[in-house]
Amino acid sequence: MTPTRLSRAEKRRRALELRVKGYSLQEIADELGYAGSRVAYNVVRDELEAAGVESVEEMRQIEGLRLERVIRAIWPQVLREDLEAIKTVSQIVRLKTGLFGLDAGPEVAAESEARPILIQVDGGDPKRLEELTDEELLKYVATLKHTLDKDNASDPG
Length: 157
Description:
By secondary structure, the chain is mainly alpha-helical. About 70% of the residues lie in helices and about 5% in strands.
């Protein structure tokens, strides 16, 4: 259906639907005949506000699932100790923590009792994932791979 044949309300709903599917704002503008990405942004924002908090939470969950799919797709490369894949997964983890508010300041963290995940490599001091050097990331992934391989070897099913 062409953009001119959709009612205004249908276009607005379609804009939100396309955004959830991962379309860029410019792609939404092009698809629906909006003047530009800024207009598409305003429409999507307004639709989210009109839909209420549950839809925003639903959008957050959808984005979280998308990020999980990307991690799963890259994970075989991580297990092969591909440094770029490891860095990509590290960036995705940071995105997820921001998406779910896990990177909030100390006041929010204290309220939610969220604690940072610390990783210890070769008996060194525990560090946050983003603080690990490339060498430490590779060692950490090698340790994970070894543990997974060992678990898989002992699991008869």
